[in-house]
Amino acid sequence: MSSRRSRSRQSGSSRITDDQINDLVSKLQQLLPELRNNRSDKVSAGKVLQETCNYIRSLHREVDDLSERLSELLATTDTAQAAIIRSLLMQ
Amino acid sequence: MDSFDESNCDTSLDMEPKRKKRRIGNNDDGGGEDELIRRRQRNDDDDDDDDDSRNAVYREVTKRWRTDKEQQIYSSKLFQAVRHVRRRSSSARTGKAIRETADRLLAVSAKGATRWSRAILSSPPSLRLKKRQVKVRVTGCSRLRRKPEEAMRRKNKLPPVQKKLRVLGRMIPGCRKVSSLNLLEEATDYISALEMQVRAMTALTAILAGSSPADDRLGLNVVRS
């Protein structure tokens, strides 16, 4: 708790209330796959932030991997299949 | 009163005006949060009170990025763009070029409402630079300076929460010097967008893999003489 209060003092210009920060942290917690099931008042803000960073990192890695795979797969496809693929995407 | 039942709400177009306003102004100030608190209190007559309000928060934040329609639009645009990318760049850089294209398309889908999307769109060939910076910082700080209370080179006695906020700011494009409130908002939107990107690219990969020459169940590969 004290760390949060000192943070709002350090932020200086804008008055950031604890409620707003709590609300955003709980929103963030709902998005994280690991912390979604916990009751929100038992998870500290530091842990939520840590999980957020880890999750974003893993998502970036996944996107990189998928890009590599896509670049390999695209080598074998051609224009005749484009329309079919697009229709498959729309399902 | 039935319009507050989250499980029945149609995510794409059928929203109340209040929800539309919040979606557009979601990243400005705390006005969206106040409304959120009021709506959570109004959901008190539901059966599982806690569960529903938690699910409501979850569904609201991700409404933008979780619709099927949004994902379909994104994946078809991605498919078209990526085919053009292949013709332009050499085979060694194709992976990175695809990642850049995918990120820019994602930023475009955000319609400029968030800071990270604007940052992506306004800095085209910066992928190599960004990777170098991240590598140097992360390995240096996390290995050598473990204890947060010791006096560090640049910062002295930052509480661990502040440090994590900084790390988070570095990972989201364009958010290094943003206030913590905005940073958290950007993070929620960015995570949902990234999830949609992963889903769309996975679907695209599955379709393309399903149509490879070895596996012709779909009959996509015509025999050429």
TrEMBL record, chain A:
It is found in: Nucleus. InterPro entries: bHLH_dom, HLH_DNA-bd_sf, PRE. Keywords: Growth regulation, Nucleus, Transcription, Transcription regulation. PROSITE patterns: BHLH. It comes from the Eukaryota. GO terms for molecular function: protein dimerization activity. SUPFAM superfamilies: HLH, helix-loop-helix DNA-binding domain. It holds the Pfam family bHLH_ILI. GO terms for biological process: regulation of DNA-templated transcription; regulation of growth. Coiled coil: none annotated. One of its GO terms (cellular component) is nucleus. This is BHLH domain-containing protein. Residues 5-59 form the BHLH domain.
From TrEMBL, chain B:
Residues 145-194 form the BHLH domain. The keyword DNA-binding does not apply. GO terms for cellular component: nucleus. InterPro entries: bHLH_AtIBH1-like, bHLH_dom, HLH_DNA-bd_sf, IBH1-like, IBH1_N. It comes from the Eukaryota. Its main location: nucleus. Residues 1-55 are annotated as: Disordered. GO terms for molecular function: protein dimerization activity; transcription cis-regulatory region binding. Keywords: Nucleus, Transcription, Transcription regulation. It is found in: Nucleus. CDD domains: bHLH_AtIBH1_like. The keyword 4Fe-4S does not apply. One of its GO terms (biological process) is regulation of DNA-templated transcription. This is BHLH domain-containing protein. It comes from Citrus sinensis (Sweet orange). The lineage of its organism: Eukaryota, Viridiplantae, Streptophyta, Embryophyta, Tracheophyta.
